[in-house]
């Protein structure tokens, strides 16, 4: 395995993938005892030696990341391209759909496999499982339980050419990785046409229902580049593999049924049984059907397509139904013919839909099957709904993609990496039951119960689909998982004990979900239980010093004793959120209690847990270091409470200079552009970053403590030597908020490069299994890059961009609408503009920054042709603008502020 690492690193350097020129010179070995500087200074940092030109490029707008066949970059691409919480279908790099995890198996990992490993990892395994990063080490590819694809036939100048739209048939294929809509271009200089595919499932922020359709839209645009007319035909096919796992003997047969109605031409694919008494198979996890549909006029429908003969795909077939015995291929197709004049482009739209409603978790049967079964009774109904509402669904999805990617001034790569992890919602990590309840694993099939100490890191869903998060706080955290003493069971029904970091994160989440509401009804309904949950946190400080010291479960799967900086800080943040909520709920006595706790805890945290450079874990006075903990090490989450505070506009909970010192220590001791030298000396961690790849190590030991974690034999010690992207994103978001913009970009880009398509699936950030929820912390880095704050009930919004301030534009989402914010500076004058693209936005207070710090006496605020009365207050560079009356912006309307 060691030789394989050497070969792998050599390949990465040659291919330019090792951070795209990030390494300008070899690194001093991190933790290498032969390093001369380490003998003089045991805590010496790993020198980064980052290339200045590469760093400058991180700020460039650039273009969409495009992966090419010619560079062998398409093999591992698997972009989730179904609706959220509808199963998992991958879009491959060449445009074919694969994986097809829609049958409710709930297996662990995208594919369950064990990968041999060169050393023992957790629990002394000498192989890597999906929990350990098997699909990071050996990425999944080409899992095709059923045949699916498209082909194009061209007739021109007396020639006839048939090309399948897949890798083998085209000179070049280019994949633009812009979730939720990918663009794939097929080109061949020998052909008169180019083909462009846009593949997506409807994705509309704030609309979780129409973003949760079990179907994929494939829109093909064909352009005639030649000087003569071209006849073209497109045909798509889909194999009937309904009831894939249970319909496996001769009593079953598969049926393809043609349906043409109201402009929709489709084939319904289902399974039936010769045994009239075999009703139980209808309750099997894989019982259901597929639909292949054309949304175009004059469609050919073939219920018995033959892939062996290419021409047969493009012939007429008038059979309304075919029945195929089990074991024989059962393939249907739809297709269309068109003529393209010189320079002409025409577009054809197709839908592949599925309907497998029997989602079952033994302990959650009362929640019902899949949520989409409330709306549809078959995959044909799904395709029919998409057809009926196609203009709206496609226009709003395109509008979001334009708003997020094309209109922003932020770098494309940054927009991609901070957003694409929300595709986890469209994988089998996440489910939505017929009851409406959201439920999730930590990663695909791994660790049940919507674990709160993991999911509290994930900021994306709360900003894009806030109703789902509000319902989860109310239905689960303050409902099903809530206990009389105020503690929240950290895995719902699965594990009812409290997790102290998860509890604090869920309280902060309640405050965020309140902010992402139009009014205070959510908080009012839930204030009694919310207050009890906060009181539970307060009780975990047993000596009244404002620092949590009770030994409870945490996200590193152990119960650490003592006073732990990251737990203490997270507790302070959640109690400060409690103070804010108590104020809004007119509970001044509790608000005062919370304030006293925060003030006391902040002072003691900074006095007792700051070692002059970074924050530490003070051992329990009785137990000492006999139990696992982070102690004097430099821990990745040490100032996580302040990071969370920035996400919800809480201000300081930890002194700014000490916070910056801690973040700089993480940069100094934990970040490396090559984890290889560190891993050479520190064993047992799971391989989420391999030699030759960069990352931020979870814990490092600058003081060279011979027993840094208190014990040697606890399996959880292996966590400390890993690079887990969710934690890294959390740090990047915090660095961005504190003005460490360059470090935040480098760290985010390092993760982005680890997931380059030449190495593995860019859309699958792996931790404890695939598509790990914590990676949705990446959205937090976008939030802090915009300096975004929002409080819907208070009609307040704020922007304070951290980069490209003088010409900045980025999307925003609010409680009932979304759009773009832009600011420009010309001389001493600044313009700030809010444009609503969808829904509505009601405002009365707006926060912006005066870029040159000059004093501002008045501002002009215009809503369309109307000038609004407003006052302005200034504190440093921050301007607070208060409108005399609230203003509501609807889609297509804007607010312009001039200073």
Question: Can you walk through the features of this model?
Answer:
- The chain is an alpha+beta fold and 899 residues long.
- It folds into three domains: 79-108 and 143-399, Glycoside hydrolase, family 65, N-terminal domain (Beta-galactosidase, Chain A, domain 5, Distorted Sandwich), CATH 2.70.98; 408-786, Alpha/alpha barrel (Glycosyltransferase), CATH 1.50.10.10; 816-898, Immunoglobulin-like (Sandwich).
- The protein is 25% helix and 24% strand.
- The protein contains 20 helices and 38 strands.
- Strand 29 and strand 30 form a beta hairpin.
- Helix 7 (412-419) crosses helix 19 (741-754) and helix 10 (466-480) packs across helix 11.
- The protein starts with a helix and ends with a strand.
- The model is unreliable at 1-44 (pLDDT under 50).
- Residues 1-24 form the signal peptide.
- Residues 501-779 form the Glycosyl-hydrolase family 116 catalytic region domain.
- Keywords: Signal.
- Residues 78-392 form the Glycosyl-hydrolase family 116 N-terminal domain.
Q: How is this fold's topology laid out?
A:
Elements: H1 2-15, H2 36-40, H3 52-57, E1 66-68, E2 79-80, E3 88-91, E4 97-101, E5 115-116, E6 127-128, H4 134-137, E7 148-156, E8 159-164, E9 172-176, E10 182-187, E11 193-200, E12 215-224, E13 230-239, E14 252-261, E15 264-273, E16 289-294, E17 300-302, E18 321-325, E19 331-340, E20 345-355, H5 379-388, H6 390-406, H7 412-419, E21 430-432, E22 438-440, H8 452-455, H9 460-464, H10 466-480, H11 500-515, H12 521-539, E23 563-564, H13 565-584, H14 588-608, E24 617-618, E25 634-635, H15 640-647, H16 656-670, E26 671-672, H17 676-681, E27 695-696, E28 699-700, H18 725-737, H19 741-754, H20 778-786, E29 789-791, E30 796-798, E31 807-813, E32 817-826, E33 829-849, E34 860-863, E35 866-868, E36 870-875, E37 878-890, E38 894-898
Parallel strand pairs: 30-33
Antiparallel strand pairs: 1-9, 2-3, 3-4, 5-6, 7-8, 7-13, 9-10, 10-11, 11-12, 12-20, 13-19, 14-15, 14-18, 15-16, 16-20, 17-19, 21-22, 23-24, 25-28, 26-27, 29-30, 31-32, 32-33, 33-37, 33-38, 34-35, 34-38, 36-37
GO biological process, one term: carbohydrate metabolic process
Domain Glycosyl-hydrolase family 116 N-terminal: 78-392
Keywords: Signal
């Amino acid at each position: 395995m060691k030789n394989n690492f050497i070969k792998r690193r050599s390949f990465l350097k040659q291919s330019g993938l090792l951070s795209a020129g990030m390494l300008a010179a070899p690194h001093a070995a991190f933790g290498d005892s032969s390093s001369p500087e380490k003998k003089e200074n045991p805590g010496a940092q790993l020198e980064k030696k980052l290339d200045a030109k590469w760093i400058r490029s991180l700020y460039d707008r650039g273009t969409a990341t495009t992966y090419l066949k010619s560079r062998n970059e398409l093999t591992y691409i698997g972009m989730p391209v179904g609706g959220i919480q509808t199963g998992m279908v991958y879009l491959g790099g060449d445009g074919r759909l694969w994986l097809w995890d829609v049958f409710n198996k709930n297996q662990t990992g995208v594919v369950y496999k064990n990968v041999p490993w060169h050393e023992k990892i957790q629990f002394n395994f000498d192989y890597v499982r999906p929990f350990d990063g098997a699909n990071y080490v050996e990425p999944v590819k080409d899992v095709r339980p059923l045949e699916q694809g498209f082909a194009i036939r061209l007739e021109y100048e007396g020639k006839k050419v048939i090309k399948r739209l897949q890798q083998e048939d085209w000179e070049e294929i280019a994949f633009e990785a812009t979730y939720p809509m990918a663009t794939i271009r097929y080109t061949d200089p020998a052909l008169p046409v180019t083909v462009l595919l846009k593949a997506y499932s409807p994705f509309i922020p704030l609309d979780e229902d129409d973003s949760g359709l079990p179907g994929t839209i494939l829109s093909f645009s064909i352009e005639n580049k030649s000087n003569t007319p071209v006849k073209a035909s497109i045909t798509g096919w889909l194999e009937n593999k309904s009831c894939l796992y249970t319909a496996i003997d001769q009593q079953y047969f598969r049926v393809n049924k043609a349906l043409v109605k109201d402009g929709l031409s489709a084939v319904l694919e289902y399974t039936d049984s010769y045994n009239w008494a075999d009703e139980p198979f209808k309750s099997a996890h894989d019982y259901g059907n597929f639909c292949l549909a054309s949304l175009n006029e004059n469609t050919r429908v073939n219920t018995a397509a033959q892939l062996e003969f290419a021409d047969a795909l493009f012939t007429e077939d008038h059979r309304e139904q075919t029945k195929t015995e089990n074991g024989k291929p059962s393939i249907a197709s739809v297709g269309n013919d068109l003529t393209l004049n010189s320079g002409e482009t025409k577009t054809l739209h197709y839908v592949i839909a599925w309907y497998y409603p029997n989602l079952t978790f033994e302990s959650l049967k009362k929640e019902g099957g899949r949520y989409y079964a409330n709306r549809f009774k078959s995959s044909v109904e799904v395709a029919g709904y998409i057809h009926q509402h196609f203009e709206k669904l496609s226009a709003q999805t395109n509008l979001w993609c334009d708003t997020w990617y094309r209109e922003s001034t932020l770098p494309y790569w940054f927009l991609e990496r901070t957003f694409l992890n929300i595709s986890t919602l469209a994988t089998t990590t996440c489910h939505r039951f017929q009851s409406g309840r959201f439920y999730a694993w930590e990663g695909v099939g791994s660790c049940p119960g919507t674990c709160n100490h993991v999911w509290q890191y994930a900021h994306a869903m709360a900003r894009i689909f806030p109703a789902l998060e509000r319902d989860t706080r109310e239905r689960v955290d303050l409902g099903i998982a809530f206990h009389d003493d105020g503690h929240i069971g950290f895995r719902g029904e699965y594990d009812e004990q409290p997790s102290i970091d998860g509890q604090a994160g869920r309280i902060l989440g309640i405050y965020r979900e309140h902010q992402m509401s139009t009014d205070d009804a959510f908080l009012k309904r839930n204030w009694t239980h919310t207050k009890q949950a906060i009181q539970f946190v307060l009780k975990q400080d047993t000596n009244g010093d404002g620092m949590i010291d009770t030994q409870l479960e945490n996200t590193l799967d152990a119960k650490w004793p003592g006073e732990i900086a990251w737990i203490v800080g997270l507790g302070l943040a959640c109690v400060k959120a409690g103070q804010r909520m108590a104020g809004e709920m007119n509970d001044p006595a509790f608000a005062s209690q919370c304030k006293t706790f925060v003030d006391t805890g902040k002072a003691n945290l900074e006095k007792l847990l700051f070692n002059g450079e970074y924050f530490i874990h003070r051992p329990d006075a009785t137990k000492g270091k006999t139990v696992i903990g982070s102690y004097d090490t430099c821990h990745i989450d040490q100032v996580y409470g302040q990071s969370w505070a920035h996400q919800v506009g809480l201000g300081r909970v930890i002194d700014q200079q000490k916070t910056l010192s801690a973040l700089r220590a993480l940069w100094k001791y934990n970040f490396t552009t090559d984890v290889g030298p560190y891993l050479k000396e520190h064993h047992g961690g799971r391989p989420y970053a391999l030699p030759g790849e960069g990352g931020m190590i979870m814990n490092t030991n600058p003081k060279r403590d011979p027993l840094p974690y208190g014990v040697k034999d606890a399996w959880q010690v292996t966590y400390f030597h890993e690079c887990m992207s969710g934690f890294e994103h959390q740090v990047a978001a915090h660095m961005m908020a504190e003005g460490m913009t360059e470090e935040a970009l480098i760290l985010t880009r390092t993760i982005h490069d680890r997931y380059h398509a030449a190495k593995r699936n860019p859309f699958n950030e792996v931790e404890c299994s695939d598509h790990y929820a914590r990676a949705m912390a990446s959205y937090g880095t976008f939030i802090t890059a915009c300096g975004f704050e929002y409080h819907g009930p208070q009609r307040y919004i704020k922007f304070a961009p951290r980069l490209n301030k003088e010409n900045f534009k980025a999307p925003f989402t609010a409680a009932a609408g979304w759009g773009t914010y832009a600011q420009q500076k010309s001389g001493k004058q600044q313009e700030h503009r809010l444009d609503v693209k969808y829904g509505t936005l009601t405002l009365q207070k707006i926060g912006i920054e005066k870029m040159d710090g000059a004093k501002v006496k008045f501002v002009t605020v215009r809503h369309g042709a109307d000038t609004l009365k407003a006052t302005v207050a200034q504190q440093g560079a921050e301007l607070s603008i208060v409108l005399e009356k609230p203003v509501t912006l609807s889609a297509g309307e804007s607010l312009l502020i001039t200073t």
